[in-house]
Specification:
The complex is a heterodimer of chains A (322) and B (585). Helices cover 42% and strands 18% of the residues of chain A. With 322 residues, chain A is an alpha/beta fold. Chain A has two domains: 39-124 and 267-320, Periplasmic binding protein-like II (D-Maltodextrin-Binding Protein, domain 2); 128-262, Periplasmic binding protein-like II (D-Maltodextrin-Binding Protein, domain 2, 3-Layer(aba) Sandwich), CATH 3.40.190.10. In chain A, the strands form three sheets. A five-stranded mixed β-sheet of chain A has the order 2-1-3-12-4. In chain A, helix 2 (50-63) packs across helix 11 (279-291), helix 5 (143-150) crosses helix 7 and helix 11 (279-291) packs antiparallel against helix 13 (307-320). The N and C termini of chain A lie far apart (71 Å). With 585 residues, chain B is mostly helical. Chain B has four domains: 24-51; 83-118 and 225-334; 138-218, no CATH class; 345-584, MetI-like (MetI-like fold). Chain B has helices spanning 18-50, 57-80, 83-113, 116-139, 144-160, 165-171, 173-176, 212-218, 225-249, 252-269, 272-276, 280-304, 311-330, 341-345, 358-389, 394-410, 415-429, 437-461, 465-473, 478-507, 510-514, 535-542, 548-584; strands spanning 191-195, 198-202. A two-stranded antiparallel ribbon of chain B has the order 1-2. In chain B, helix 4 (116-139) crosses helix 9 (225-249) and helix 15 (358-389) packs antiparallel against helix 20 (478-507). The longest helix of chain B has 37 residues, at 548-584. Chain B starts with 17 loop residues before the first helix and ends with a helix. Classes of the chains: A alpha/beta (322), B mainly alpha (585). The interface between A and B is large, with 57 and 57 residues.
């Protein structure tokens, strides 16, 4: 039989090549480095709020900057609620960024899979309401007006908010219900007695909100201050009056720090208590909490925590470590 | 009109050609709309990535005079007057480019996946298996079936150890610490497995048989990494090149001489480290992938006497160097490109100027390895069964037709759906960590599996039935026919189809989002179970960064990188197809 034809040879070579490739790939599994807990390296999975994403990402970058750090901190933005529901409470992530405190349901759901969330405040955000640059008629909005615009039974036109404003429909852009920003806005601005409207363009990507506002002169939207500070010339931020007698206050980091801007909200990270037992997670969180009081946070566009909060955080970290 | 004299109907009036002309024009405009829109998109992206307008006009002028005009002139000369030399010119220019890409790929492998000493040990292990099998062929030439059984057994024992280290690690590293080292033999302990509460003890297997590569790695007298590479990488390539040259010259001596020369050249690169400060291993990899193939090819050209083609790369390099020297001397600034060496080798950064794509590039390559390992055997196997073995008549035949229709439909299912499937099957059910390379690869592999099956089926179907009949007529069995006739004939088509499907796999984003591949990953994965990123996922992240530099410059550079990888893959598909077609017909 003609065994030694050219086809047989090339086939054998091909098989050999494929076998060698397979061997290389398999030995890739053998020499596990970071996913192997004994290796000295490690992995930290951070999910959650798109607002806190910007801080966590910068923290990860600074934490991993020294060459000898073999810890892979991966950061993802899934929205506060999305992160809790799909990853953190299923024990699929170590840290969840949150732009609002965890809810009781989330705590229960986490408890069912033995995930014990530990809360740390890592900064403050000045939630910003923005309109199109051409909307020169708006120079202040009260909580009452914002609530009427964004609640479920909302007013449809600018002239319905104030009579002197144009008789045009208000186009709304805002975060999705999985977002902590959405929940915070609903509870604190719209009011807990009302539901957030579902007639707005929903997105987890704050740039899309800015883009939407930019392209429609009668649009309005809200998002974290960091996105406004990077896009000041594209949209116009509206000063807000919460009705407590302080009048209209502009969204700036100074006003947020001084506490005069009403829509200032705390930003949190939640850490799985079991994960803290792992050195890479503990080291990263120590670094994070230490740096949360420094310029790193304001570099992104948020307000750092004060030193008392930082010290509280670090003490809590030591206490909570299993 | 039956008349006696034949008369042309409509001799005085013409048939209207208007409809035909209009149809042709419509087709032409459809083609041009498609081409122009793609071209505009590519130009737009390339403009963002390279920012050619940021350069001095003088810089463009100098480059035009020193590099572009001579190259275009020479190309025109080849095209008009000396076409064979043109072929030499583009091969001799393309070879180093492919070689450098290959060197980059190897560099990534050695840096992230498989350290040089691990590779060296593995090569020794594989070589031992091949040598043992070869010896078996010599000793017992009439027992091919025995070899079929022996080959996988030997590979496992020699290359992976018994039980294989990967499996041992899955079972539980704690229990293995006792027995992983042959030095620590615990007599009478037995082979103990703890499968999460379910314990299994095999008496009489006192310790794990360590594989040859592990033994090599533990050896106290490992040579320098550069010497390891010389032995494990340059030596096989030199042997291959020597065999090739020997066949071309029809002289075994010339072949041996070529092998020797290549090895001497490789050893000479070791002297470059002290001279240049660049590691000897880097020089050796570049030498092996770039200089060696080029030298072998140029030797052939020299033999045939087609030296005119060799002028082209010389003109390119000399023009580039002259341009660089002149622009520097005249102080003309080049374009401020996003896509540069730093971009390819650094991690994503919150500062656009420092941002790079390296971890995502490595992640994409590893993802593709997983995809290939999964889809190629399963896809081609399924296609062979469906085309060659599955019954085509009766009730079962109808069932097979139903399955084939389903596969075609699966090829059109949106990728998000596959993402959900991957989430449900691999993460929730099989408990593979979310965001890891293997989960991404398996999910994207599922996505392109139907495409691979269909492409392979079509390639197998295209093999003429007369070939099969002839093979049966010679007395071959069905297995012999499939192995010797159908598969070699269909292989170019199968490979092309698979590589084009891989092109789709490398660009998929939606399934990766669903299986939790993270937005920002700063370390390249160095195992398939590590968390990793992929190029399209990284591009998606950049598209939503607050700063505009990300959304335009950095993102565009990422798109260009992805396109280049894609083009290289498609070019490989074409070369493979041509190569196989040439050798098999």
């Amino acid at each position: 039989m003609a065994r030694e034809t050219t086809c047989t040879v090339s086939r054998r070579e091909f098989l050999l090549g494929a076998g060698a490739g397979g061997a290389v790939a398999l030995s890739g599994c053998v020499e596990n480095v970071r996913s192997d807990p004994d290796s000295g390296g490690g992995q930290v999975i951070v999910k959650g709020s798109s607002t806190v994403y910007l801080i966590s990402d910068l923290m990860a970058q600074e934490f991993m900057a020294p060459d000898d750090v073999n810890i892979n901190v991966t950061v993802d933005s899934t929205g506060t609620g999305g992160g809790f529901k799909n990853f953190f409470c299923k024990d699929d992530s170590d840290v969840n960024g949150a732009s609002r405190p965890i809810t009781d349901e989330e705590r229960t759901s986490c408890g069912e899979s033995n995930v014990e969330p530990v809360e740390f405040q890592v900064g403050r955000d000045a939630l910003t309401v923005a309109v199109n640059n051409e909307a020169e008629w708006v120079d202040c909005l009260t909580y009452e007006e914002l609530s009427r615009i964004w609640r479920d039974e909302r007013v449809e036109r600018w002239s319905d908010v104030r009579e002197e404003w144009p008789d045009e429909p208000i186009k709304l852009f805002g975060p999705a219900p999985t977002s902590g920003t959405y929940d915070w806005f609903n509870n604190n601005v719209i009011g807990e007695d009302y539901d957030h409207t579902s007639e707005h363009e929903q997105t987890e990507k704050d740039n899309i909100i800015i883009q939407g506002i930019e392209n429609d002169p009668y649009a309005m939207g809200y998002f974290g201050y960091a996105y406004y500070s990077e896009n000041r010339d594209r949209v116009k931020a509206v000063p807000v009056d919460d009705g407590s007698g302080k009048g209209c206050v502009e969204p700036t980091l100074e006003n947020a720090q001084a506490g005069s801007y009403p829509m200032t909200r705390p930003l949190f990270i939640y850490v799985n208590r079991q994960s803290l037992a792992r050195d890479p997670v503990f080291e990263f969180i120590s670094f994070y909490l230490e740096e949360a009081a420094t310029g790193l946070v304001s570099e992104v566009g948020y307000v750092p925590v004060d030193e008392a909060t930082r010290d509280d955080n670090l003490a809590k970290l030591m206490l909570e470590r299993p | 009109m039956p008349t006696g004299e034949a008369e042309w109907h409509g001799a005085e009036s013409e048939v209207s050609q208007t409809r035909g002309r209009v149809f042709e024009a419509l087709c032409l405009s459809a083609t041009s709309i498609a081409l122009v829109s793609v071209l505009v998109l590519l130009l737009y992206v390339a403009n963002d990535a390279f920012k050619p307008l940021s350069a001095d006009p003088g810089w463009h002028l100098v480059i035009l005079v020193t590099l572009v005009l001579p190259a275009v002139g020479l190309a025109l000369y080849y095209y008009r007057i000396d076409e064979p030399a043109g072929e030499v010119a583009y091969t001799v220019t393309g070879l180093p480019i492919v070689g450098f890409l290959l060197a980059g790929g190897l560099g990534v492998v050695f840096a992230e996946l498989l350290a040089i000493d691990e590779y060296f040990a593995l090569v020794i292990g594989v070589a031992a298996v091949v040598a043992l099998l070869f010896a078996h062929t010599r000793l017992r030439p009439t027992a091919p079936l025995e070899r079929v059984v022996l080959a996988p057994l030997l590979s496992i024992v020699v290359v992976f150890g018994t039980p294989p280290a990967a499996i041992a690690q899955f079972i539980g590293p704690d229990d293995w610490q006792l027995v992983v080292d042959p030095a620590v033999t615990v007599p009478g302990l037995g082979w103990h497995l703890d499968l999460g509460g379910f314990a299994l003890t095999v008496p009489g297997l006192p310790y794990r048989i360590v594989s040859l590569p592990e033994l090599v790695l533990k050896s106290p007298v490992l040579p320098l990494p550069s010497l390891q590479l010389l032995a494990a990488l340059t030596l096989p390539i030199a042997g291959l090149a020597g065999w090739f040259v020997g066949r071309r010259h029809e002289s075994r001596q010339d072949g041996l001489l070529a092998t020797g020369l290549i090895l001497v050249g490789g050893a000479a690169t070791l002297a470059l480290e002290p001279a240049t400060g660049v590691a000897a291993t880097t020089w050796l990899v570049v030498y092996t992938t770039t200089v060696v193939p080029l030298a072998v090819y140029v030797e052939g050209v020299y033999r045939r006497g087609q030296l005119a083609g060799l002028a082209f790369p010389v003109v390119l390099v000399a023009g580039g160097l002259a341009g660089a020297v002149l622009t520097r001397a005249l102080g003309l600034a080049g374009p401020d490109v996003w896509l540069d060496w730093g971009y390819l080798t650094s991690a994503p950064n919150s500062d656009p100027a420092l941002a790079g794509i390296y971890p995502a590039l490595v992640g994409s390559i590893m993802l593709l390895i997983v995809v290939v390992m999964m889809t190629f055997p399963i896809g081609v196997g399924a296609a062979i069964y469906l085309e060659e073995y599955a019954p085509s008549s009766g009730l079962v035949g109808k069932f097979v037709t139903l399955i084939e229709i389903n596969i075609s439909n699966l090829a059109g299912v949106p990728s998000v759906v596959y993402g959900l499937l991957g989430l449900a099957v691999f993460i929730r059910w099989a408990q593979i960590p979310n965001g890891s390379i293997i989960v991404g690869g398996l999910t994207v592999g599922l996505l392109i599996l139907p495409i691979v099956i269909i492409a392979a089926q079509e390639a197998i179907e295209a093999v003429p039935d007369s070939l099969r009949q002839a093979s049966y007529g010679m007395g071959s069995t069905r297995w012999q026919t499939v192995r010797n006739i159908v598969l070699p004939e269909a292989m170019p088509g199968i490979l092309t189809g698979t590589i084009l499907a891989l092109g789709r796999a490398i660009g998929e984003t939606a399934p990766l989002l669903l299986v939790g591949i993270a937005a920002s990953v700063r370390l390249a994965p160095n195992s398939f179970f590590d968390l990793g990123s992929a190029m399209p996922r990284q591009i998606f992240t950049w598209a939503f960064e607050p700063q505009a530099e990300f959304r335009y410059g950095v993102l565009a550079a990422g798109v260009v990188t992805l396109l280049v990888v894609l083009l290289v893959m498609n070019a490989t598909a074409i070369v493979l197809r041509n190569k196989f077609e040439r050798t098999n017909t």
